[in-house]
Design goal:
15 helices, 76% helix, globular, single chain
């Protein structure tokens, strides 16, 4: 792989790391980037690359939020707890000893909420993944989705002005609220919508604070992106060349580093600002996508 191809991979990793977490649609940006910058790879591998580099982005969430997500620890049980467990049947003692000594129950509850929120996507969106990719992955759909959700961000923020969020911490997030946010995540199967954009809008509408909506969006990405990457790799097969492996690794590493910076920026930004700026950005980008591709078609 020559230096030019390497620089292309690095640039794509930067775009992925920024746009995956900011609610501005990574797909919309990738379509624009792909118009001007082509990797010297097959289309099949490029499809895999664009999904698998998301693993780098999601690893940034795992690293930044490790203490909130890792559900195991080691602690010594109080004597009263040991005595209470000793009165249980043998099989129950084994389970209770493990749970009490090694499991952080609050974090397990958070993971159960994440699983519940992922169910709508698994049940509704996954079976239509190939159909959606074939029929909706074009600049018209992406541009319209960018504009529509940009308008929605502005409308939702205006509606939300003056409302006090009912849920201000992940511990307060109910299973019902998690499920409703998961239903909004289904909308993100339409290219240009933005997964983070859909779930953040959903979180705000169902009464969470911007911080909770953003953090829960990050956590939802872990099973969704790991699952999507695994499916893409299984479809492609594991017959990667040495160059293709290098491309994947470089893209993931760059996306990882940039994602850490993007997540920190977003969490700092929303403490003082709303999401309207992202809404206006999406509207402008969507209009540019339409103007460029329509103009290109007319001039062809």
């Amino acid at each position: 792989m020559d230096i030019i191809e390497l620089l292309k991979v690095i640039f794509l990793g930067i775009v992925e790391g920024i746009t995956e977490w900011l609610p501005i649609s990574s797909t919309g940006h990738m379509i624009l980037v792909d118009e001007f910058l082509h990797l010297d790879v097959s289309k099949e591998f490029m499809d895999v690359f664009l999904v698998v580099i998301q693993l780098g982005a999601i690893l940034a969430v795992v690293v930044l939020y490790w203490n909130k997500l890792w559900p195991f620890y080691i602690k010594k049980l109080p004597r009263r707890t040991q005595m209470a467990i000793a009165k249980k049947p043998k099989w129950a003692q084994v389970i209770l000893n493990f749970v009490e000594r090694f499991c952080d129950k609050e974090k397990w509850v958070l993971w159960f909420k994440i699983v519940v929120a992922c169910l709508p996507t698994i049940v509704i969106a996954l079976p239509f993944d190939d159909f959606i990719e074939e029929h909706f992955n074009n600049y018209v759909v992406v541009a319209i989705a960018l504009i529509v959700y940009g308008v929605l961000f502005i409308v939702v923020e205006n509606y939300n002005k003056g409302r006090e969020p009912q849920c201000t911490s992940l511990e307060d997030l109910s299973f019902k609220t998690a499920f409703l946010i998961g239903c909004f995540q289904v909308l993100s199967v339409i290219p240009g919508t933005s997964r983070s954009g859909s779930t953040i809008i959903g979180g705000i509408l169902v009464g969470t604070s911007r911080t909770v909506a953003a953090e829960f969006t990050f956590f939802l990405g872990i099973p969704v992106m790991f699952g999507a990457s695994l499916l893409k790799i299984l479809k492609f097969g594991f017959s990667f060349t040495g160059t293709e492996v290098l491309i994947l690794v470089v893209g993931m590493v760059v996306a990882f580093v940039v994602s850490i910076l993007a997540i920190k920026f977003l969490m700092g930004y929303i403490k003082k600002h709303d999401f309207k700026a992202f809404g206006w950005y999406r509207i402008v980008l969507g209009a540019l996508v339409l103007v460029y591709f329509v103009g290109k078609t007319l001039l062809a």
